[in-house]
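Give me structure tokens for this 163-residue protein.
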Amino acid sequence: MSDSIDLSTVDFHEIARRGDAEVLAVFLDAGLDPDLQDEKGYSLLMIAAYNDQPDTTALLLERGADPDAPDGTGNTPLMGMAFKGHADRARQLLAAGADPDRATSAGATALHFAAMFRQPDVAAALLAAGADAALRDARGLTAADLAEAHGHADLAERLRQDG
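Here you go.
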């Protein structure tokens, strides 16, 4: 019987998704890269934050995970929070240095996503962290334009006031 673990059989992203910070800490202590990505480019941090796992998100950030590491399509963890509406995780990422104005190749920022998916609490967190509401995506649209186009007039008005 072997005392070693076959690391090729360990699904680290599932550990992050479940929020098992204690188990993940053991592997990080043993040298696991906190910026490990899966085949789609999803980092451990992205998976933990996307699944609203505060302790695992904190652990990965403390261990040096890049809060702006994009996935295979160019989306960052902060953009995922704007989709899911996890304002507390967004604030956690912003406090760790995530760039509120980082954009995809199409010029969309997390604020654009928050506007599109009607996530006013995430939008407020982004604005409080200095997100620029006047930034335009590749189509020339601001976050307020997107909020309005998706039927979120109240959010569009707030973004116009802050932009």
